[in-house]
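Complex 429.
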Amino acid sequence: MFDVIIIGGGAAGFYCAIHIAEANPKLKIAILERGKQVLSKVKVSGGGRCNVTHAEFEPSSLVKNYPRGEKELLGPFHIYSTADTVAFFEKRGIRIKTESDGRMFPESNSSQTIIECFLSEIERYGIALLKSSSVVDIGPHKDNKFGEEAVWQVQSVKKVYYAKRIVVATGSNLKIWGLLEKLGHKIVTPVPSLFTFNINDVRISGIPGLSTHAKIEVLPRQMMGEEIKSRFKSRIGGALNLTSEGPVLITHWGLSGPAVLKLSARAARLLNEYNYRFRVRINWMPDYHKEGLLSLFNEIKKIDPKKTIYKTKAIDIPARLWGKLVVASDIAKDLKWADVSRKQLERLSQFITASEFNVEGKSTFKDEFVTAGGVDLKEVNFKTFESKLFPGMYFAGEVLNIDAVTGGFNFQNAWTGAYIAAQAIGKSL
Ligand SMILES: Cc1cc2nc3c(=O)[nH]c(=O)nc-3n(C[C@H](O)[C@H](O)[C@H](O)COP(=O)(O)OP(=O)(O)OC[C@H]3O[C@@H](n4cnc5c(N)ncnc54)[C@H](O)[C@@H]3O)c2cc1C
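Predicted structure with flavin-adenine dinucleotide bound:
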């Protein structure tokens, strides 16, 4: 019998095991992992570099990066946050560096550094690592084999284990969510988050790799806009934030980049209901609105009448994008500012400040993707990460209905939940 069984040998599972052992070294702890390998997502994370966390040290700002979990993580982040993560690794000799966009990586630029740290820690603490042990059933211990002590029984494909406490850290795993549902927990239906938008449109074709700062918003569907809006208001706490601003990357298939990924996370559920067919509006120059830009163009018309519009971009927008939008506005490549019509300038201003595009599907973002959905947060005590329904059962990581935008925040959720659950377990035994 174990004191604690952790189901899932991923980021949250390892972090939790290490911290339980640190809090109470006498405890007998086991990690049950389905696969032959552990920490496989950590391995591929951040393009193999592992973006461990983000340089956002203020809990109230940090939570803003969690479309699901914002309210619930505020308290936990006051207890264990990004600075604690950095301190954990640095204490173990892993230097963490910050990139200009705030993402934090091991200085080695290799996720293997993190994996080796975790593996050596569990060895140091004598934590049992049971691989190829897929868990197929979880339930309260029935046959009372160990008296009052054993509370849980965990059935793997190999054998049944008993434990006083269990931590479910299985990430986005449908089977485990099914088991939890069978036990009585509510599971919020999983849908993808962090994806890119497929768009086929002349205004952005032939210029892949171009990145620019822009504002992008999802337009409500005319037909069922109100209906969907009201349904979503109740689910996401009233705030329908379907806008995002930041770098937008034009790709071979459509649009990607931080602003698009952030929007895909915020609107993950709505876009799933739309079956990933919807419209977006983009302002390629968020400091301008259509009328302001039109007056600027009229000024240029007076100042530079002999120059061609195609070659004289009047604003700080990438030249290749300017060229695309000029052509799409029916302005010939050799047309001079003096000869352009008001209608043409209006169209150009419209395309720059409010281009509308049809999105026809999504693509997976390779560097980081997560699932929105999981154990309903109302059924979890966020002071301990313990189930409110089943004392002695704890959750950490992506198994919960918590997910973040890209940038190291998803791991931070795993570290924070794992740490807090570990403290609670360490104290309770
Ligand atoms: C390609 C990619 C790159 C990413 N990069 C980043 C990044 O750089 N920064 C960031 O913050 N986030 C990143 N993420 C997200 C991040 O990896 C996850 O949020 C994080 O791994 C969640 O940790 P977890 O422990 O909850 O789940 P996981 O890491 O998925 O671990 C769950 C573990 O449970 C095991 N398991 C599942 N079912 C069972 C079962 N029945 N029995 C036993 N074991 C089971 C799984 O095999 C797995 O090992 C990335 C995700 C992907 C897919």
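Confidence is low (pLDDT under 50) at residues 223-227, 233-239.
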